[in-house]
Design a protein that fits this description.
Length: 182
């Protein structure tokens, strides 16, 4: 499968909720346990045929997980669910050190919660790559802004799916069609 990413990109960092996975429990913004999420429709078809890991694209995650701070799930569970989603989406389980998340309160003012660039910088540092060799895939404005602040290219997941010929109509996010490229 041809890569949807430019050839100079060595590390692809993903947002989780609304990008790799979506929650299956009404009213929850993110899963609190196994069985509360499913892969985003189309994401496996878009990513699983690519070569991930050693000798291929390196994968990272950057996710705001303030529900850890609010006590809805443990840090260990948040990490496990993020790694599970990454593995289901790509067929490859990323190294723990590349799976970065912010477990602080929404108003903590930390340097990691997106749109701050901390999580992206941590993932790049794990692989030892400069911003020019990384790309961030997300679904929200905070993702785009975090990428901008980190100096990293950004790709909207809806554009990724559209590039692969995967129906954006399968997406749950409102306004998805406005992100389609011709
Ligand atoms: Mg998201
Ligand atoms: Zn944080």
């Amino acid at each position: 499968m041809t890569s949807p990413f430019p050839p100079h990109i060595r590390v692809v960092i993903f947002d989780a909720d609304g990008t790799l996975r979506r929650v299956t429990v009404p009213g929850k913004p993110c899963p609190h346990g196994p069985g509360e999420w499913e892969p985003l429709p189309g994401i496996r078809e878009a990513l699983a045929g690519l070569r991930w890991g050693e000798g291929g694209l390196r994968m990272g995650l950057a996710s705001n997980q303030d529900h850890v701070f609010y006590g809805h799930l443990t840090e260990a569970m948040a990490r496990r669910l993020l790694m599970d989603a990454a593995e289901v989406a790509t067929g490859y389980r990323p190294p723990e050190g590349a799976v970065r998340f912010c477990a602080h309160a929404m108003d903590a003012g930390c340097a990691c919660r997106k749109p701050e660039p901390g999580l992206l910088r941590e993932a790049m540092a794990f692989y030892g790559v400069p911003p020019g060799a990384a790309l961030f895939v997300g679904d929200a404005e905070v993702d785009r802004e975090a990428a901008r602040r980190a100096g990293v290219a950004f790709l909207d997941v809806r554009d990724l799916l559209a590039q692969r010929g995967l129906a954006p109509s399968a997406m749950s996010s409102p306004g998805a069609s406005s992100h389609q490229k011709t």
